[in-house]
Amino acid sequence: MQEAASAKGVQLHVLTARAETDFESAFASLVELHAGALVVAADPFFNSRREELVSLAARSAVPAIYEWREFVDLGGLISYGPSQTGIWHQVGAYVRRVLRAEKPRSAGPRARQV
To answer: Please, what is the average pLDDT of the chain?
Structure first.
């Protein structure tokens, strides 16, 4: 992200939060910096605190982009990744196929029959 920001002449500020208590100060910093947007990095810690992050972004009036669609389902602006629920459904479908001993050549509609 730093490279892309530099190439576009945009200043990128990296804020860290290692505990939930860091969120308030991080969002206060965004407001002080007059940040135009926020990218919430892909991290299990942030994912487990989706509701609070979405709420703080809305309260701070900072447009934010998140890793998972579940953030958007809670009111976040936009996500750049898929739905975790959708991923787990797809994993289940593949596990079912493996347990049924399906052959790899019949793995999907694009597979060629020989």
So the answer is: 88
List phi, psi (to 5°) of 79: -125, 155
pLDDT tens column, 10-20? 889 999 999 99
What b-and-e string marks burial along 30-67, b requiring 16 or more CB atoms within 10 Å of the CB?
A: beeeebeebebeeeeebbebbeebbbbbeebebebbbb
Ordered by start, the domain boundaries in the chain are 2-82
Give, for 54, the enclosing helix (H) or strand (E).
helix 50-60
State the DSSP string of 14-29.
Answer: ----SSGGGHHHHHHH
